[in-house]
Amino acid sequence: MRSPLALVSAAVIACSAAIVTPAALLGTSSAATEEHALRVATRTAATLRAQLRKERESHRRTIRRLRRAALARPSVSHALALGAAAYGLPRDRLERVAFCESRLDPGAGSGPYRGLFQFGSALWRATPFRAFSRTDPYAASFAAAWALSRGMARHWPVCGR
């Protein structure tokens, strides 16, 4: 995608090239040559305006898509707070485990492990949240809080201490 400055520069060069024709350089300017140069410059300007409209609309679509994606992304912090509150655990404990396991990235994966808490499929199936995706931060937070509240910290041998 070209920047608006590049488009303006291209327009100036195109218009200059259309105005400075070989006939103008030789000093043999005629009305037909000038009319041709004007048509070329007008056509070039119209093409550039159309390209600029396309670029602007593409930019607007991209911005709208990014805004929707940002608004739809669940808050990891909120998920951790809800999970901790639901099972009576300190929020910072859940956050420490999640940070150690995934650097707070709900989409993290390492081999067969997925999500904030790097749940393996066997442990995930044992939780009451197995119907949800392991990469859902809310389901993962609730499942980890559920497991930790039941003394299952051994499933996170390094981070669960």
Gyration radius (Cα, Å) is 31 Å
List the total number of helices.
Answer: 7
For the record, the CATH class of the largest domain is Mainly Alpha
Strand content is under 5%
Spatial order of strands in the largest sheet: 1-2
Care to count the β-strands?
A: 2
**Which of globular, elongated, flat, extended, rod-shaped describes the shape?**
rod-shaped
Low-confidence region ranges: none
Which fold name is given in CATH as the topology of the largest domain? Lysozyme
N- and C-termini, Cα separation: 50 Å
Summarize the helix and strand pattern as letters: HHHHHEEHH
Descriptive labels:
161 residues, mainly alpha, two-stranded antiparallel sheet, 2 domains, 2 strands, Lysozyme, 7 helices
Description:
The protein has helices at 4-19, 22-26, 31-72, 76-87, 91-102, 121-126, 137-149, and strands at 109-110, 113-114. It is mainly α and 161 residues long. The chain folds into two domains: 4-72; 76-155, Orthogonal Bundle (Lysozyme), CATH 1.10.530. Strands 1-2 form a two-stranded antiparallel sheet. A hairpin with a 2-residue loop joins strand 1 and strand 2 (113-114). The chain is rod-shaped, with a radius of gyration of 31 Å. It starts with a helix and ends in a 12-residue tail after the last helix.
